[in-house]
Write a structure and sequence with these properties.
- It contains two helices and three strands.
- By secondary structure, the protein is α+β, with helices and mostly antiparallel strands.
- The protein has one domain.
- It has a three-stranded antiparallel beta sheet.
Amino acid sequence: MNKKGFTLVELLGVIVVMGVLLTMVGISANGIIKRSRAEKARIEEGNLRDVAVSYAKAENIRLAKCQAGYEVTSDTDAGECRLTILVSDLKNNGYFENKSNSCDDNGKIVIYRYVNPDNGLDEYRAYVKEGTCN
């Protein structure tokens, strides 16, 4: 008698192999999604820095010179060479449009006047706390 078809063991083997392959694809896809979200947040925070500097220039905000080489490293820094604003301030004044709603309206941005210690170049910079956008 000539039987055609697969045995139960063969079918189970195929199902196990497919399960392993699908699991590997799922794990890989999850990693790609996490990395793309982190990259999106990094880009949004970069946009916020650029917009904050543009805001300071357009609104003619004058800050005293910071000590040469001084960089802001937290959103709690205060002083005459720094100004703290909120993401909502930029949105309300039409400088930042957060269509994806990925940035916290209460996120703080510190605009400061940076002086390059090597060549004396004087410019405005902005600090955005990591995690302000997600």
